[in-house]
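Lecture 7, part B: from sequences to assemblies.

Below are the input chains for today's worked example.
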Amino acid sequence: MRQYSGNRIGLGVVGAVLLGVGGYAYLRGAGALGKGRNARVLEADLTGYVAAHPWIAWGLALVLVLIAMLTTRWLFMALGWGRLGSRSGTGTALLCVGLKDVDGISRTSVRVVGEDRLRLAVTCPSVADVGAVVTKLNRELVSRVRRDIGDDDMGAIVRVHVRR
Amino acid sequence: MAWRVPVPLFGVMTTLQERLPGGAALSERETPRRRAARVLRPARTPAGVAVAFTLSAGLALVSAEVLATLMGGGLGLVPVDEVVAVAADSPWSAPALMLGALGVAAVGLVLLGLALVPGRCRLVALETSDPRIVMAITKTGLRRTLRAVAEDVDGVRSVRVRLRRRLIEVTVVSDAERTGEMLRRTGAAVGERLNGIGAMCAGEVVVRLRRKGL
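Predicted structure of the full complex, as structure tokens:
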């Protein structure tokens, strides 16, 4: 079971590209790369070559569109698309029944994420014996919920909160 | 006055491994603490959303502008021609360009740092008997439950709990005459609650008496 790592991959790739481009431009300007530091950033030869071969500009536009589509997908994923899962009424009811002995339990939720993961959330009052709640979840309830709405091999992430 | 209660919260890893069904299969690297840390580490959502949104919007605008220009029009949303003209006129050694390059490299370094540094988790992992279950309590929730249990001790008027890296600091305000026993009982109650929920935060509980005799 792993945390969603798309953001870290995206940030790493963008960070590496920016570091590479920025570092190259700085070193080139400082003359550390052995090339002319007073040369133009966009040389006239290159501009002329691109103007003579329009497919290069079309190819560049295509690459830009593809990267824009990729980053839009990343944006949706970062906002939780496909990661929040769907709420399971049966699972929530099972959890509530299992914790009916504890007064003041609130905001219980069970979500099924994909095919192999459950996300459970429970909020207890501060006067509750949180140790007993955690023990019950660990030894009995999570397994029961997992068995009833999915299968025993599902991973489960349980978030416990204590309110005032 | 302070009373230190060393609580073996997660000091003896072998004990937990013996209790796990697949304990013998746990490798040296795959400890419950590592597994929980891997699942619970920050997903970098705010930074990811910000960078993804900036890139999506910027690239969509630039690609639309480039395509419109190639098809003989021009949307006028992004000054592509002006940027090309400036790049064709500027040398690599232009001070503004070098300063901008340093800024870009610095932003890249920050983003790389966000990607590589694990980050501080806002949840405290709890022991579980099944390796496929990861359980955690919010830091606020842990503070509240420890505070509630400490306030139940006789002679304690109010309590403040702070979770530090390797220390749980419980500051007790009391008007009791004799505070030594009360501090000991507070430390024991807090330690018992921590062990009861199986919090995986190594360290010790320090109980401090902040004020007395009001």
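Note for the exam: Chain B touches chain A through 76 residues (CB under 8 Å). Keep this in mind when comparing with the next example.
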